[in-house]
Amino acid sequence: MLSYIVNRLIGMVAVMFIVATVVFVIIRVTPGDPAAVMLGPDAQPSDIVELRSKLGLDQPLPVQYVTWLGQIAIGDLGQSIFLNQPVLSAIGDRAEPTLMLTVMSMLIAVAIALPIGIASAVWRGSLLDQATLTASMFTASIPSFWLGLLVMQLFAVKLGWFPVAGYGGPGASFLDRMTHLVLPACVLGIVNSALITRFTRASMLDVLGDDYVRTARAKGLPERRVVLKHALKNALIPILTVIGLTTALLISGAVVTETVFGLPGVGNLVVNGVLRRDYPVIQGALLVIAALYVLVNLAIDLLYLVVDPRVRY
């Protein structure tokens, strides 16, 4: 087990190096000059040159790349050009809305997908099963920003049940902040429940026809116990895999939803960084998101040991 974890951590370092390289190259080839954006359209060329020199943007790309890798190695993601604060601090200040949104969205997605997927597999071919397949295909094709605008218009503007946008003021209570997250969490939860539903159904169908399930039924065990204890337990590996993948996608995919609902999260930070050509913020945020993605996958792999004792690393 220890050797497996060490090997995975080494692999994570290699993956993060590749991600860092790709992010650096993509950002540098993107049109736009941060110095020109900061100084505005009326800036003199000499002022732009001076600011580029101050920010180190006039250095050759290999020098910028090596400098940035050296900073990452010591845990320094650089200094935000516009926010005038360390990138790691800027991400930390905005981490709470994104993490809470991800957790709430994942709980909603699982609460929707697991019961529906299990019922669809148990009553395969029924009207419920056909409705589940149709609804999951439809839900998966809905753009999150479009659904967000719809629920905002209905539940926030017309009915007034929830706040329209934002994350509460500086002195807002925890309950108030969670209230602001209900609508965006429901949007992300509904959209991402489709994939989990289909995987749950498929995984349950694979095990419901196995011999041990037929034996359990032949012994006269209640159907609920057969399905939930015997079948579901052995179908959890693929379900956990897709839940882990969905969780990682939620972290990186919250950008659009945070923008629609005006949440001051990491996604909003990335959007503003792109608009302002704030290289350090974009690079640092994407690197942190990639690291979380890899860590979630590692956590799911280790969770396999708890779910299925037959798994060995």
Automatic annotation (TrEMBL):
CDD domains: TM_PBP2. Keywords: Cell membrane, Membrane, Transmembrane, Transmembrane helix, Transport. InterPro entries: BPD_transp_1_N (IPR045621), MetI-like (IPR000515), MetI-like_sf (IPR035906). The chain crosses the membrane at residues 9-29, 99-123, 135-157, 177-196, 235-261, 281-307. It is a multi-pass membrane protein. PANTHER family: DIPEPTIDE TRANSPORT SYSTEM PERMEASE PROTEIN DPPB-RELATED. This is Peptide/nickel transport system permease protein.
